[in-house]
Structures are given as structure tokens and as C-alpha cells.
Specification:
The structure is a single chain. This protein has about 270 residues and is α/β, with parallel strands linked by helices. The protein has two domains: about 140 residues, Glucose-6-phosphate isomerase like protein, domain 1 (Rossmann fold, 3-Layer(aba) Sandwich), CATH 3.40.50.10490; about 50 residues. It is about 50% helix and about 10% strand. The protein contains eight helices and eight strands, in the order H-H-E-E-E-H-E-H-E-H-H-E-H-E-E-H. The strands form two sheets. A five-stranded parallel β-sheet has the order 5-4-6-7-8, with helices on both faces. The protein has a three-stranded antiparallel β-sheet with strand order 1-3-2. Helix 7 links the parallel strand 6 and strand 7.
Amino acid sequence: MAEEKKEAIEAASQIKASKGEDYFATFDFENLSVDLKEMLKSGVHFGHQKSRRNPKMDEYIFTTRNGINIIDLEKTAIKLKEAMDFMEKLTASSQEILFVGTKKQAKRLVESAAKKCLMPYVVERWLGGTFTNYRNISSRTRYLRDSQEKMKRGEFAKYTKFEQMKLAEEIDKMEIKMGGIKNMTRLPGAILTTGVKEDNLAIKEAQKMHVPIISLVDTNVDPTGIDYPIPANEDAISSLRLILAYLTKAVLDGRKKIGNLEKKEVK
């Protein structure tokens, strides 16, 4: 019954997020701190089955229960704080962090977290060349921004209704594909992913362009090449939501530092 209740809560949360609501509205980011009890309650410690265990994750595994790998939450807390410190410093230096989460259960969570802290995001298919051919992607996002502005100003009224419809369809499709990065005018200072396997294309491009990588790593993946690995359950919505909340707080704290610096400069 407890398992059924947990699944029902997660399903309800996913529906809420899919409606575009603020998935993190209940978090008090001002006083939020890494808490082992909260992580335990959210199932952050549940890894994959023992048979799927990647030996390179051994240092983060506490034990195995009923054939399931159990992640050492004390080590998770250490790695999480390292990632948070890095994200806060990066944001305080006015750099962006690209949030990426293309697997089904992570999409709306990642989008909501990115919007909460005003960061770019990718939750649909990763567009090849987003980093390695950034000039081309940048021209496409600029076209999207310009087209949306023209539509707002009514500049498409000179076209026939059919042409207007086709233009609107094109803009809508582009918004779905690259709306989350349309205001990203340079390569980000880092990339945050919620799945090493699902977001492997983004990770490969980040590695190629020397963009630091922050990522959740479950017990079935190889954390090699991830600059800031966070050992955690990357499948359960409750776990994803809590870890993303902590990382969002780091970005928000970094933004506050920018504001404080600007106030000092004005004085």
C-alpha cells in the first residue's frame, strides 16, 4: 500500500508539472539546506538492481538490500554540496548553467527548475551541434526571437492568412525545439543533466567544448567524465525534485550575490 501511495503522489506531481505550474513553489529556498532525512524520505538512496551495478559507482554504494543497490547518502551530501558551491560561484560571476533533462519523468521538473532561476534549458531532443556548432544554433535562435517579436508587433499582417498560418506553425515548432535556449547568447559556464545515459549527447558535446558537467549519477552508470557527479536516484520524481531544488537554490544564491555586488557599486 505504501508503494502504491508513493506512486500516486508522484503521478499527481507529474500532472501538476505538465500543466506548467511551479513545481518548486512549496520550497522555502531561503532556508533550504541539504538534509539527509529529507533525501531518505524522498528515496534519493534507492539505486538500481544489483545486476545492473556499474563497478565505477562502487565508492558511492553503501549496501545492497533485496537485490537493490543503496546509495550512501553521506557521500551524496558531500558531492551535492560541491556541485552547489560550484554552481553558486559560477552564477555569481554572471555565467549561465544549461539545465538538461530529456527523459520523461525529468522534463517538466527540469523546465520548472530552470524557469525558477532564469536559466536556459533543454527538455526535448538534444539538437546536435548545440555546443559544437553553436554559431549555427545561435543564428536559428536569433531567427526565432526576431520572428516572435515581429508576430507580436503585427508585422505578419501583410501576408495572406495561409502564409501567416504557415509562419505561426514554423515558429511554434521552433519554440518547442529550442525555446528553452533562445535567449542563450553564448556557451554556458556549465551544463546540468539529470541522466548520464539519456542525456549522453549533451554530455559528449560539453566534454568536447570543455564545458563543465554537473550530473545526477545512478548506480548503473559510469560517472567518469562528469566533473561534478551527484550519486542519487535519477528515476523517482520525488528524488529528482529534491535534488533539483537544492541545485536551484545554489543558482538563486549566486544571483543574490550579483545583486549585492551591484548595490555596493551603486553606493
